[in-house]
């Protein structure tokens, strides 16, 4: 529905929250990277050890930048309760470093996944071995979060709404098809089942609160579409970078 604004120009009414939410979820349903051919082959057990190691190493480059993009988002949040929520995301990935229960973070768990697959830690940290397409995709996402309005950056994180189902599928696939990987190395996937569900719902609530005009809502949908394309491009680069 269109209405006249105070300056006389026609404006479009915002979507009701339920419709806005459905539009965001529809982006994931159509564009999430669980449908990428590389992921499909992974979950069918068709990857060679070399392909799986290449994916683990490339994906680590993405994982190590998650706290960076979250710090950029954190800087744009206005209220303490919002910043506390987002600060927890950084701790979830970087860990607390205090040696207590649960002090390891997602980055450490991913390093352990690499070790379980036969990759050394320094090999994972060596970004020079990451396919250029992966580096470009990750840098594009970080730059997006640096330059775009905070509601757009938060909306881009809503791929997390689909992450729990992907993690469950991945755990089952690794256990069944890749028994040569120590099951202890799957801790990252197991943790993200619950963390991803929590993070996705919290981010969705923040987007619904902050994106109130139709223009802001449309930008949020576009931001989530962009993030899906980042994840898809990352897998394109991995899939095409070796035999």
Describe the structure.
The protein has 243 residues and is mostly helical. Helices cover 68% and strands 2% of the residues. It contains twelve helices and two strands, in the order ββαααααααααααα. The chain has helices at residues 17-31, 37-43, 49-63, 66-75, 80-94, 106-116, 121-125, 132-147, 150-156, 163-177, 187-210, 214-239; strands at residues 2-4, 10-12. It has a two-stranded antiparallel ribbon with strand order 1-2. Strand 1 (2-4) and strand 2 form a beta hairpin. Helix 9 runs antiparallel to helix 11 (187-210) and helix 9 packs across helix 12 (214-239). The mean pLDDT is 93.
Q: Percent of residues in helical segments?
A: 55-70%
- Count of alpha/pi helices: 12
Oligomer: single chain
Strand content: under 5%
How is the main sheet built?
A: 2 strands, antiparallel
Overall, the morphology is globular
Sequence-ordered SSE layout with sheet pairings:
Layout: E1 2-4, E2 10-12, H1 17-31, H2 37-43, H3 49-63, H4 66-75, H5 80-94, H6 106-116, H7 121-125, H8 132-147, H9 150-156, H10 163-177, H11 187-210, H12 214-239
Antiparallel strand pairs: 1-2
Helix pairs in contact: 1-12, 3-6, 3-12, 4-5, 4-8, 5-11, 8-12, 9-11, 9-12, 10-11
Annotation keywords:
single chain, 243 residues, mainly alpha, two-stranded antiparallel ribbon, 2 strands, 2% strand
Quick overview of this protein structure:
The chain is mostly helical. The chain has twelve helices and two strands.
């Amino acid at each position: 529905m269109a209405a006249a604004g105070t300056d006389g120009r026609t404006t479009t009414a915002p979507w009701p929250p339920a419709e806005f939410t459905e539009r965001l979820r529809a982006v994931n349903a159509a564009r999430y990277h669980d449908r990428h051919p590389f992921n499909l082959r992974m979950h069918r057990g068709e990857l060679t050890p070399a392909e799986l190691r290449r994916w683990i190493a490339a994906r680590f480059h993405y994982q190590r930048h998650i706290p960076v993009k979250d710090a950029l988002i954190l800087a744009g949040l206005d209220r303490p309760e919002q910043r506390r929520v987002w600060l927890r995301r950084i701790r979830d990935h970087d860990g607390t470093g205090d040696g207590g229960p649960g002090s390891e973070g997602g980055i450490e768990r991913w390093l352990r996944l690499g070790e379980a697959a036969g990759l050394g830690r320094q090999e994972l940290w060596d970004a020079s071995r990451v396919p250029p397409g992966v580096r470009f995709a990750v840098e594009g996402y970080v730059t997006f979060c640096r330059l775009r309005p905070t509601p757009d950056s938060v909306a881009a994180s809503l791929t997390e709404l689909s992450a729990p189902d992907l993690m469950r599928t991945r755990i089952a696939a690794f256990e069944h098809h890749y028994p040569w990987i120590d099951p202890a190395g799957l801790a990252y996937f197991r943790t993200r089942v619950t963390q991803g569900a929590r993070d996705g719902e919290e981010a969705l609530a923040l987007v619904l609160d902050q994106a109130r005009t139709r223009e802001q809502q449309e930008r949020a949908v576009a931001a989530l579409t962009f993030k899906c394309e980042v994840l898809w491009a990352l897998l394109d680069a991995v899939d095409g970078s070796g035999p």
